[in-house]
Amino acid sequence: MQVMHNVDLTPLNTFGLKARARDFAVLEHENDLHEIVKLPAFKRESVLWLGGGSNILLMGDYQGLAVHIQNRGIRELFRSDGLVYLEAQAGEVWHEFVLHTLEAGLSGLENLSLIPGSVGASPVQNIGAYGVEVKDAIHSVRCFDLDTCTFVTLDNAACRFSYRESLFKQAGRGRYVITAVVFALNETFRPNVRYGDLAAVVEQACAGRKITAKDVSDAVCQIRSGKLPDPKTLGNVGSFFKNPVVAAPTAQKLLAQYPDMPHYPQPDGSVKLAAGWLIECCNLKGFQIGGAAVHNQQALVLVNKQQAQAHDVYALAQHIVRTVQQTFGVALHTEPNWIGADTAPDTAAAV
Ligand code: EPU
Fold this sequence. Notes:
Elements: E1 4-8, E2 20-27, H1 32-36, E3 48-50, E4 56-58, E5 62-69, E6 74-80, E7 83-89, H2 94-103, E8 128-129, E9 132-133, E10 138-145, E11 150-155, E12 176-186, H3 198-206, H4 213-227, E13 235-239, E14 245-246, H5 248-257, E15 263-265, E16 271-273, H6 275-281, E17 288-289, E18 292-294, E19 301-304, H7 310-328, E20 337-339, H8 345-350
Parallel strand pairs: 2-5, 3-5, 4-20
Antiparallel strand pairs: 1-2, 6-7, 7-12, 8-9, 10-11, 10-12, 13-19, 14-16, 15-16, 17-18, 18-19
Residues 129-130, 195-196, 228, 238-239, 242-243, 262, 274, 276-277, 280, 298-300, 335 line the site of uridine-diphosphate-2(N-acetylglucosaminyl) butyric acid (EPU).
Function: Cell wall formation.
Family: Belongs to the MurB family.
Domain FAD-binding PCMH-type: 17-188
């Protein structure tokens, strides 16, 4: 296992923040983990496990070991009851994997097309879009357990998935290194196009013919490219905030004042609000601090406009959280992981 030093992490984080890692290694096969944990540079509490870099914000140079997870491979495990079980290694690129499943005639992931990042990162925040969450298709997750230095398989229930949350962000944080994910995909396609304008876009493209999973994927790509910036041309980490969930009376009070406010009642009686709408209502679209700005097409996304510094992004996030809190009395929480910040700006802004 080769350890490199003073490695530039700028191309490895999609926001494009400038940072270097003191120590850096590449994981090419899951068995490399046995060697990685024995490296002198390895300190369990301070390893940066780096996937596609699309959900992290680097607050400065990384004074520890960064491990770039690059193990690749996709294989079919078995078929049963109309489901095909595919195992993908953590280092596979998410969208390439989705396209692979579609080419293999399988469905279940088409609504999650074009999400940046890697397969191994997908369960961590339970990526979701257009009415589907990845938990709906995950059978199990293979991990290296740093407590025991053995490989374990966690089934779907053990991963404790919820909206943009999982065991890997909560109690299992720092314990499990995800090395592969097993998906249960459908042999027979059943479209799920209830979200927003997805049905209309799909129907227009198909003009009366039978809809395929690839049609849904194409429509999702079209909608996403219309409002979400491509990290290759404009640095970003996708949604910067989670959509806040509030109690029903809070939502009713807000609706009396803002009847057009998008709101999504949840099974438990609470109500999910659209953070992008709340931010736009505060006139923050396009608002900029230093090189970091609120995206013009989708206020939920912050972008790296002009070589943003880490403190620009932090200050912008803090300003947004404070403004939304003052205007609507609603607390926003950031979605990406802040690497090297003592507190996330949503916590800091609330003080
Ligand atoms: N809206 C505005 N202004 C904005 C943004 C949104 O008024 O600037 C309104 C929209 O008009 C709509 C509502 O807010 O009525 C919801 O907007 P949208 O459908 O664009 O979705 P979102 O809630 O903003 C979520 C996910 C996205 C995912 C989309 C589509 C979260 C945090 N974000 O965004 O996920 O692609 O739904 O399913 O749940 C990501 O996590 O990185 C991500 C992009």
